[in-house]
Amino acid sequence: MDNNNLNFPVVKDKVWYLKKVNIFSGLTMDEMMFLDRNSKMKSFKKGETIYFGERDHDKIFFLKKGKVKLLKLDMTGKEMVYAILKENEVFGSLSQLKENINSEYAESLSETMVCYISKDQFFKFIESKPSIMIKLNRLLGTKVLELEMLIEELTFKPVFGRIVSLLLKLNRKFGVNYKGNILINLTLTHNDIASMIGATRESTTLALNKLKEQKLINSERKKIIIEDFEKLKELSES
Fold first, then answer.
1. Model confidence over 127-160: pLDDT tens digits?
2. Do 190 and 163 touch, CB atoms closer than 8 A?
3. Element housing 125 (H / E)
4. Are strands 104-108 and 68-73 parallel, antiparallel or unpaired?
5. Hey, is 189 helix, strand or coil?
6. Distances (CA, A) of 233 to 61, 229, 237
7. How would DSSP label each residue in 90-111?
């Protein structure tokens, strides 16, 4: 077993972690052991770069513990967070096509553990596994759709509307019950939010303060609390 731990006192083996990845459900133990032999496991501290397109274009990653943000650099070198992942999600060079992914990278939002495997080995492995290929194609389709929706929002929505949409999206993935409200269980600074909606920090702060004044949200330890979900949903649809 190839462990490279930093601060995880109890570490399960790679097979246990790989079984949790949705696209691998239904594999036999022999197939899981093949993945175990051909993948590596590594841990990262908060803020470390896990994946960089130019350097890691030949790897596919499976997020086993923690949270990761995926970023792109635009033509001016400005970064934009286009996705935040949680445990058991997949990232890296997912397409079989030669992609221009040099501007993509992934950064840990917390102490994080990943498994990774060679892209060539992975696609060779799933050639005879149509169920995995179907799930992977669905994943790629979802990724493309999310990017298209993000571009549409950046083009047509003001900053306030973008933040409302973002909060609803984060709620679906990271929302938990908290004292009768909804806590977005994710530590985010105003800079983080600004980079996710393509806005300046100043305009982001103004929009967040407006939502607070309307008693739709609050914040606690850099985590956002949704206090009026229905009203927030109404705003997104108006």
1. 888 888 888 888 777 777 777 777 778 778 999 9
2. no
3. helix 119-126
4. antiparallel
5. coil
6. 34, 6, 6
7. EEES--SS----TTEEEEESSS
User: In which order are the strands placed within the sheet that holds 104-108?
Assistant: 49-52, 104-108, 68-73, 79-85
208 vs 199: CA distance, rounded Å: 12
Which element (helix H / strand E) includes 6? none
pLDDT grade, residue 56 (50/70/90)? confident
110 phi and psi angles, rounded to 5 deg: -160, 180
Q: Which residue has the higher pLDDT, 41 or 12?
A: 41
C-alpha closest to that of 223 among 164, 170, 150, 165: 170
| Range 73-96 average pLDDT | 80
Structure tokens at 57: 């274009």
Among residues 183, 193, 187, the alpha carbon closest in space to that of 159 is found at 193
Give residue for tokens 């080995």: 121
| 219 close to 188: Cβ distance less than 8 angstroms | no
- Least confident piece of the model among 19-23, 36-40, 145-149, 200-204: 19-23
Residue recorded with tokens 């930093």:
6
At 14 the pLDDT is 59
